Amino acid sequence: MRGWLLLGVIVAATSVVFAEAVPAISQADAKKLLAPGARTKCTTIECLIEDAYAADPAAQGLALALFRDTGTIAGVGPAELMDGGYRGAIRLVPQLPLGKYRKHLTWTDGAMRSIEAFFGELFANQATAPNYRWRALSLRFVRSVKKRTPSAYAFGWTIAYNVEGSLLTSAPGVLETLFHELFHNNDFEHGDWSATTLQTDYDAIVARCGTKARCLAPYAPNKTRVKATGTYYAFQPNNGNGVHEYAAELAVRYFTEQRQMLRDGKLAKPAFKCGPAENARAWQALITEFFAGRDLVPAC
Fold this sequence. Notes:
Elements (H helix, E strand, L loop, with lengths): L11 H6 L9 H8 L10 H8 L4 H14 L2 E4 L3 E4 L5 E6 L7 H21 L15 E7 L7 E4 L2 E5 L8 H19 L3 H5 L1 H11 L3 H4 L25 H23 L12 H14 L10
Parallel strand pairs: 1-4, 4-6
Antiparallel strand pairs: 2-3, 3-4, 5-6
């Protein structure tokens, strides 16, 4: 999770390749997202979306299209006071992405469609589908009070999205953050895979480097760093079990590299797997567990 961890166009071939397993959100869960604690006469999810977004027709159209095309529902999270670890206590309040916040729904819609298109293209005509879910997510939009963290956090096929989040100020930032959070959901669905598989190497890297950015640089999957400490987010202390963040950043690096290979046929910088031996082991474990071994990046 980027912030805090509690634990395009749609390619036509996608629905054919992956039609065997299509998750869905129940009517009861949709009501919790769209009309929490309120009485409603709606008997369909589309009706709930229409009612929740009635004040902003443009946002309403986006939310309906997102649900119809991907099964994902954009609603709200509860008011809460969060223990944000190294960030301190954080007050979050529900905030539907209407009006001035509609841009976040626009970016989210684009991100989910880009992810859908990515998997459709990467696994087109492949005999084996990825062991990975990216559809029918519960999106809980919230707003932090007097803080800009967390940007997002994930649990139980839910992603909480902070409209004031410091990483959520552009379409690319939203895409990368949502892919990061999406991995957390898949990680725990696979029995806390990252802690089971990557912990030994991760702990050895931390023991060797601590929070020294220069030492950690060869092992960091991405450039995201924590302003307060200067260290890479994947290795930030007091942030739950850091291996979860390392693994999610590794998934983002996979997403980035495979997209570059699909688009350009080459990478703009050296492949992550071609760095230290720990990188190669983590990379191979990731693609084997979640992505059916699919890797367009040439061997080192």
